[in-house]
């Protein structure tokens, strides 16, 4: 192949070297607009996984890199005058300039043509005369910009300011310096990369940056390669203690806002993007260099495996996109955590450290326990001590008091519509469904959305509480839960609004009924989506009638013995649609600004709270974001939660979306928990109200991690309980927990341990002459100059 590479960074150079190694006949030219010795930044960090791939692909480069690595396993977190060390992580870093020099030498040795200080020809010309053109020209890619109509990039400019610096203080481990200043929180991400230097990244929210006066040089025209010396001098002064008499060095160091780059496509014809040109991930979870070199490896492999370029480029994108998107989800969680770091400065130091370490949701409690058991023990004890609880039990099995209601543990079975009622009456199916979940160990079991009127149903199969027959049937289910389990049972009340009169989920979710349909209503005559019925706009008399329906249903629910009531103000149903500017375009007192959009949901809440027994809690489920432009955001969710708590809500159950078919959720593991986190720290913690996290929480490790980090008080788990009705009890068995937080029904007691299997029941013989010395399996390895290898010429 004849290959043109635009960009002489690590990704472009590594790709060139790999392709030449695979076939020396490839004719490869690299264009780089800067000189070979020009590089910005200081050190780059690699994971063990990436290093394994590099070693497999090119042992020469891998060995040259290994001789220059700074290696360590510790993370030091400095916060409130305390330093906490967590081990067992595993890092390798080296100078970016050294890495580029190695890659340049490798390319020259293999016969790659390198053209430095030279702009690449127009991509159109290159695509016409080369078999393959690779855009490896970084975050400000001219290739991507020139073909934006093809790649369709999305550039998300973030809210914090950061600056790359270096220091001659050689850190022994990864360093997080978190400083509370008079202007707000400022943090440093630092790590060693050689025997003589460390990377020193300063970051703060833009609001803090302005209050601190760092905006004095905003708009200043710096020459290419020049640094913001005013800011560098301020940083030296601000972090004098952390620098401990050492120098700070600049290298094209200016304040930047991190931009998350995404592209709908990474290739077109014989043109392909790799590295930062295709995607970026925030520096707080790793290195753009790591991603770029992984891209290069995958692209080279796919080109070698496929006979034609189009097939190879399609395979490359298919292989890499899920990996990159997973990394970007983790990076998004991490960067947003640092943007909002000011929310957490009230936390006790151990919890703060755990929160920081688990910010991306990739590192969890179990990960940390495996890597550093002593730190995990400290986290457990700090969590228990802060709440006056038993430090032995896992966090999920600690009790919780929700208003006057005592819960044995912090696991909730989420409301899940079953669409299996007849005329709104729950039957044997619901008894078995909810009864099995209650006997499965959860602290609280929630009903599906129980509709307050026939017209308030979503489908003909929805349950209701508008008559006595329904109330009697619910009483039977509630009695079973109370008699046969330690769980409590909650009633979720709602009205379908504009999402009503639709088919059963498995017959066509959200599709209108073909026959037997009823009138749908809403705050405005706006359909839920294409093909949905247009709702009739509610009048004042309608609102009064619906509020009365909620009150009557709440009274029937109280008579049935439910322990808790949840008002459903989420997922685009009636009360949710009043809250959302997407569904509510009214011009009266119930539309317009958020204060008005809250009016009817709060009227219903107040009426229900008055009708519901005072000693039983009332909670509210909300959609924290509509996932569409001009819809509600997490900032609106904070104010919505604040309003309901002010009116007496005992907890906010934080879900998201389902308000419009146009939504574009950012799905992923625990993807909704940041919204719960924000509401807990900005509103609930100061008021005593609880926050419930929900949304793709799939493991007991996720539950424990969320609770220990202080992101929620309780966790609602849905689909996982459909997979395993005894999920909570099985989680206790997996963690070897036996206690009041997870009591097996006496009839099922024999199932309290995992059944033996070939892999678990076998007794293995001793096969080694010497047992490993635990001291050799060091949790804490630190980088010191004494351990550093001699420089390699």
Automatic annotation (TrEMBL):
Domain NADH:flavin oxidoreductase/NADH oxidase N-terminal: 396-732
InterPro entries: Aldolase_TIM, FAD-bd, FAD/NAD-bd_sf, OxRdtase_FMN_N, YqjM-like
Domain FAD-binding: 3-328
Protein name per the record: Bifunctional salicylyl-CoA 5-hydroxylase/oxidoreductase
Taxonomic source organism: Streptomyces endocoffeicus
